[in-house]
């Protein structure tokens, strides 16, 4: 496509500015854990408002350099920071050519447990793996065809959790929640026979912990092989009503590598649990919105194919305020032309989601809980709100995520009241914090 562009390279940040970006954007995100979070660091990052510092840093560069993209002065590596909404949309819309999803740092992180996954593949192989993911996850369907089996799974597990909460003096913390959430995820992805396969979740956690270090950590090849063989076993078993059965059913060829696609389904469901817990906190702190949620839940009582737009909007808000993939990465496959210069091939391109999600220069209520932002017919317009990325590389699991997470919120809130402990953990009268550690949320639960 012909683009208006100027000759010469894109502007480059000074060494001092590059170091500031490394300090304010990269270090906190890497320290929090890119592939599996480190709860203590997340708690500290919340207390120190590190995510706000990252947004302010990028805003400052935007003020100085205008639209960007802006090259960073990193020795031996071409890296660009996206500063403009149109450029963010362009990069996402023009994936995977010339902006490959298989960016170098992402490849080395995900290689620890899913080296042949779609996101880190390119060309023909990526196309086939993406197609496979889209078919299994029913990427374009708001309500997955297996909803009538997934929703009861969520309801059963939520009931069991609430029974445990009652015998725990009505207290609910992250550790109890995640045990239940992991069971739901295993039942949805692998089938009921995996309900208690905690060992599989723990093996994946070990491989993800290695993934946090990228190429700096040696590959645990034997552990990965055993893990992928276990997943293949679940695909072979094809338990009816599971994603594993779908993986066994949809057509594949020698490029597909189904068992390599599956770790993403397990691993990416964890942030969905984080978003659910944070959404519960948002609703606990905003009585008026909780009323709307309850009204919707009542309307959908008994519905096994629920499309609860308000609850989904609350979850999207939770992900807008606290995106679980704050850095969306691409890698240019060729020299590209921009309004302010040329970007070399093999440049790692960084889109910092919170920079757009919390842009108080554009969004009136950037720091407020505003589910209506997702309910307007025109959405956010052209503004990149990208909790699930965007363009051809958009998360193919997004509708499934919103189905399962909204069903969980509904099952929990149907007959129970959740109050934050302490009550001032999150206050509607205050701007929403730059980060909310799901690990440090506690609720007092009572019947309503
Ligand atoms: C809150 C939960 C989730 C969020 C916020 C999320 C977000 C994202 C994002 C931002 C990407 C793009 C990453 C990139 O470009 O580097 C992505 C990709 C992907 N997600 Fe999700 N995801 C979630 C859960 C899930 C679940 C539960 C599944 C499957 C069951 C899933 C399947 C995938 C797949 C297969 C890709 C790769 C797509 C491709 O290669 O084009 N995600 N997700």
From TrEMBL:
MF terms in GO: heme binding; iron ion binding; monooxygenase activity; oxidoreductase activity, acting on paired donors, with incorporation or reduction of molecular oxygen
Residues given in the record as heme binding sites: 395
InterPro entries (alphabetical): Cyt_P450, Cyt_P450_E_grp-I, Cyt_P450_sf, Cytochrome_P450_monoxygenase
Key words, A-Z: Heme, Iron, Metal-binding
Keyword Repeat: no
Cofactor(s) demanded: heme
Keyword Heme: yes
Family, as annotated: Belongs to the cytochrome P450 family.
This protein's name: Cytochrome P450
């Amino acid at each position: 496509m012909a683009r208006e562009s100027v000759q010469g390279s894109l502007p480059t940040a000074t060494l001092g500015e590059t170091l500031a970006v490394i300090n304010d954007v990269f270090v906190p995100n890497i320290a929090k854990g890119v592939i599996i979070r480190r709860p203590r660091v997340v708690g500290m990052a919340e207390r120190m408002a590190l995510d706000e510092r990252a947004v302010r840093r990028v805003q400052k560069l935007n003020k100085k350099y205008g639209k960007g993209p802006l090259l960073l002065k990193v020795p031996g590596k071409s890296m660009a920071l996206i500063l403009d909404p149109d450029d963010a949309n362009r990069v996402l819309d023009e994936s995977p050519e010339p902006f490959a999803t298989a960016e170098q740092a992402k490849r080395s992180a995900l290689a620890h447990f899913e080296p042949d996954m779609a996101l880190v593949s390119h060309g023909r192989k990526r196309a086939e793996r993406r197609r496979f993911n889209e078919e299994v996850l029913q990427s374009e369907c708001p309500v997955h065809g297996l909803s009538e089996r997934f929703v009861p799974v969520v309801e059963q597990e939520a009931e069991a959790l609430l029974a445990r909460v009652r015998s725990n003096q009505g207290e609910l913390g992250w550790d109890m929640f995640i045990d239940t959430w992991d069971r739901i995820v295993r039942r949805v992805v692998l089938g009921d026979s995996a309900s208690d396969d905690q060992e599989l979740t723990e093996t994946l956690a070990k491989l993800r912990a290695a993934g946090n270090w990228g190429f700096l950590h040696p590959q645990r090849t034997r552990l990965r092989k055993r893990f992928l063989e276990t997943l293949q076993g679940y695909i072979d078993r094809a338990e009816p009503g599971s994603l594993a059965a779908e993986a066994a059913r949809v057509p594949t060829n020698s490029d597909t590598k189904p068992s390599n696609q599956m770790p993403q389904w397990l691993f990416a469901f964890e942030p969905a649990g984080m978003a659910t817990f944070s959404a519960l906190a948002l609703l606990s702190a905003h009585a008026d919105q909780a009323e709307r949620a309850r009204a919707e839940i009542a309307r959908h009582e008994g519905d096994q194919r629920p499309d609860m737009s308000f609850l989904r909007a609350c979850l999207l808000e939770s992900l807008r305020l606290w995106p679980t993939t704050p850095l969306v990465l691409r890698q240019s496959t060729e020299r590209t032309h921009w309004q302010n210069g040329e970007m070399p091939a093999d440049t790692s391109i960084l889109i910092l989601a919170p920079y757009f999600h919390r842009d108080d220069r554009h969004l009136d209520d950037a720091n407020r809980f505003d589910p209506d932002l997702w309910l307007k017919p025109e959405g956010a317009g052209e503004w990149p709100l990208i909790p699930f990325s965007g363009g051809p590389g958009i998360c193919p699991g997004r509708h499934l995520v919103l189905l399962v997470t909204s069903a969980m919120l509904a099952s929990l809130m149907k007959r129970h009241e959740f109050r934050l402990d302490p009550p001032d953990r999150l206050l509607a009268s205050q701007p929403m914090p730059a980060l909310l550690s799901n690990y440090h949320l506690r609720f007092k639960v009572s019947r309503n």
